Amino acid sequence: MDGHEPEDAKQSTADMTTFVQNLLQQMQSRFQGMSEKILTKNILSNIVADEMGSRIDELERSINDLKAEVGPESSPSPLAPSKVVATDESKAEGSA
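C-alpha cells predicted for Heat shock factor binding protein:
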C-alpha cells in the first residue's frame, strides 16, 4: 500500500467522527439539563425549608405569647398525669 487511505475509508472515518461528536453534544445537553433540574430542585427545597423554619419560629413565638398571657399557674406540666374527675354515674358503673 502507498500509505494513503482509500476514499471509502476516509468517508467512513469522517462519518464516525461526526457521529461521535453529535453523540457527545447530545450527552452534554442531557447532563446540563439534568444538572439544571437538580439545582432547581435543591433551590426550591431550600426555599421550602426556610419557609417552614420561619413558620415554626412564628408558631413557637405564638405559643410562648399565649403561655405568657395565661400565666404559669394554669399551664399543666407535660409530664404530670391529667386529673380525671369521676362523675356520680361513672362511680356507679365502676361499682356494679
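The mean pLDDT is 82.
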